[in-house]
Amino acid sequence: MLLVIVRESTASFGGDHTGRILRPIWQALFGVVTNREWDHIHHHLRKTGHFLGYGAQGLAWLRAWLRTWQPRFAWEAWRERWRWALQMALLNTMLVAALDEVHQSFLPNRTGLVSDVLLDSSGAALMLVIAFFFRWVKQKTARDVRPLAVVSEPS
After folding, report:
1. What is the C-alpha separation between 1 and 103, in angstroms, rounded?
2. Is the pTM of this model over 0.85?
3. Which residues, 6+ apart, have CB-to-CB distance to 33 below 8 Å?
4. With helix as H, strand as E and coil as C, how does 37-104 read?
């Protein structure tokens, strides 16, 4: 996942290059658009890619931290383990996003923006909250399900 971000941070993945690839695909699916419309669409496609890509990276960091801490915590302490793993996953994702933007500020056709770090971090935060919610529901339903008692009929 990290290698994908490293690759996409290069000059060849700048907006001036990705538009040439994405526009024919967009127009094949949705019809011809004007240059002005395309600029708007392309901007939102790129921002959506940032949001989802860093969301996926946040989930990858979460999985890594949960597996790292697995032997050290008892099963009953899953909330504590998840709390630390979620915090570390978000922190790691924010760090990568910030370093990515610093790197992009040195490239001629890229810009390093604080707003992109916030967007990337928001994508990670949302995906991490969703992951925690599903884990919480799974834990709650596992706790609420009790085996049915076998009732024997009187003879």
Report:
1. 17
2. no
3. 23, 26, 27, 41
4. HHHHHHHHHHHHHHHHHHHHHHHHHHHHHHHHHHHHCCHHHHHHHHHHHHHHHHHHHHHHHHHHHHHH
Backbone region of residue 31 per phi and psi (left: phi > 0; alpha: psi in -120 to 50; beta: other values): left
What is the rounded average pLDDT of the residues 142-148?
61
- Residue 14 tokens read as 């700048």
Q: Are 66 and 82 in contact (CB under 8 A)?
A: yes
Contacts of 57 (CB under 8 A, 6+ apart): 1, 2, 5, 93, 96, 124
pLDDT tens string 26-80: 889 999 999 899 889 988 988 898 899 999 999 999 999 998 876 555 655 777 8
The dihedral of CA 65, 67, 73, 78: what is its sign?
positive
Contacts of 29 (CB under 8 A, 6+ apart): none
Report the Cα–Cα distance between both ends of the chain, in Å, rounded.
Answer: 65
